[in-house]
Structures are given as structure tokens and as C-alpha cells.
Amino acid sequence: xxxxxxxxxxxxxxxxxxxxxxxxxxxxxxxxxxxxxxxxxxxxxxxxxxxxxxxxxxxxxxxxxxxxxxxxxxxxxxxxxxxxxxxxxxxxxxxxxxxxxxxxxxxxxxxxxxxxxxxxxxxxxxxxxxxxxxxxxxxxxxxxxxxxxxxxxxxxxxxxxxxxxxxxxxxxxxxxxxxxxxxxxxxxxxxxxxxxxxxxxxxxxxxxxxxxxxxxxxxxxxxxxxxxxxxxxxxxxxxxxxxxxxxxxxxxxxxxxxxxxxxxxxxxxxxxxxxxxxxxxxxxxxxxxxxxxxxxxxxxxxxxxxxxxxxxxxxxxxxxxxxxxxxxxxxxxxxxxxxxx
Length: 341
Known about the structure:
Oligomer: single chain
Order of helices and strands: HHEEHHEHEEEHHHEHHEEHEEEHEH
CATH topology of the largest domain: Alpha-Beta Plaits
CATH class of the largest domain: Alpha Beta
Number of helices: 13
Number of domains: 3
Radius of gyration: 41 Å
Largest sheet: 6 strands, antiparallel
Shape: rod-shaped
């Protein structure tokens, strides 16, 4: 630091650096004659010392030229300055005139750009005066950022936990299929869509034939294995958009959006029965089951009703069982009457 500065204002240059590490002194010729230790640490392309103040800084507020005469008239006022070159750091500050003919003394701060300036120039607590609240501000900012980060992370964990809990509440734990509650919600949405003029859908109700025999003769573990394999076979037969639910011990309901042609549904039902009837191995033995299927379609109703459709699919399923099992029946008034007898 230029010792002339300390002598001019009656303060030792080192002491001035401690009190005002962000000061700048410009000579009567407008040259930067001295800078504080923090200003000297700024990561600039070339040092500030001995360069012309007006070439290195622009005065952004108040709007006036940056000649020495104009700056003298601004002594004591709040000034907004900015470097003319990268990284274009902004400053807040004020200036006072030194002894006649000795120039001006500026005391600067980073203002609201403090955090960015600290990052840009690699500054630390040692670069600020002990009485400067800048470090306290940074600590508060960092603490707030840490708290906000933890809140965001916590909210994320809570959201994931809620989604997982909601999924578990709508999932059959054994097979991983949807459960009855999920089916009721999806059926309500599908019916509401049809009533608004949306696409129709079909319902298939499936009951595993001879499952009770497997469960009674080979045990519940074998029964659970058969149910798990049957669920996988359902997934392979149906489309990704089809809604598959396990609604009872060996009962399943499938909602098939957009599929209302009886011929298509019969083809799917036949394929499903063939897949279900494939032997399932359990501890070296073959478990043999089949499937009875009842089918109904939203297009059969002037105003589809979820309970009515489930009841009619069940009636068609009952008719399939009465017909010898391992087959399917499509709902009609005839199957409904037969189920009631």
C-alpha cells in the first residue's frame, strides 16, 4: 500500500487496511494510488493499482460522469459502481475528499451481490473487516440454503413415502396386481368417461378352476405359488393399458379400455384359458388348474353402472362354470336369468 495515503489521513497504512480492506484511494490525477487488501485480491485480468479509476470503474448511480471533479461533488453520497471488465463486479460505497490536492478515498462493499462476489473472487472471512456484517450475512444465507435444501429433500422423501403408501394401499401384496379398492376406483373413472362420451370398455371376471384342490392337497404355499404364476400369465396375455386386479382368493377382474368387440374379447378369453391351463410346477409336481371367465361390455348398457357391470360379469362367470368350467361366457339377458335360477 502507498504509505503516502496513511500519512495523508493520519492513519498507518496497515491499520487502514484492517479497518477498510475494501478501500480505494485515487490521486488528484484520477489514478488508483492505493487499494485495500480485499480489493487487491479480486480476480481481475490486470491489477487495479496505478490504473485510471475512470477506465476501470463505471458509475451507475447517480448517473453522471466519473471525472474527479464530479466525484468530489458526490462526496458523502451513496454510490453504485461496477467494474468495466469481467467479472463486472458491482459495488456499493461512498467517498470522501482527502486533504486539498490529495485525491479521494472510497470505501466499498459488495452490497446485495456479496454471495456472488465471494464465489467469483474466492474470498473468505479474513477479507472483511471485523465489524463488517458481510460474514454474518453469508452464514445466515448458507444456513438458510442448508435448511431449504433439507426441507426440499424431506419433502421429496415424504412424497416418495406417500406415493409408496398409496401404491401399497391399492396393491395385492401376494401377486403385485391391483386390489379390489383400486379396481373400484378405476371402474368408477371408466364409467364416468363413457357417460361423458369417452371410449367404451369391457370387464372380464376370472375364477381359477380347481384351485381349491391344489390348496387343500398341496398346502397354502403351493396355492400362493399358483396364484403368483397365474398373475404373471395374466400380465403376459393382457395389454399394458389393461387393468388387472385380484379381488378375492382366486378371483381376478380385468378392465379392458377401448375393447368392446365380442369377437376380440372371445379371442382374448380363449388365449387366456390356454395359458392358465399350462401345468405349474411345485416341488417337482405339476399343479393343474383352469379358468372360467365371464365377460360384459359397457356398450351393452344405455347408462353403465359399476355395480351392475360387476354383477353381470359374475353372472356370466357363473354360467361358464355351469357349462363345465375352462370356458367363457359373454353377458346377455339369458346368462343373467340363468344365474338367478
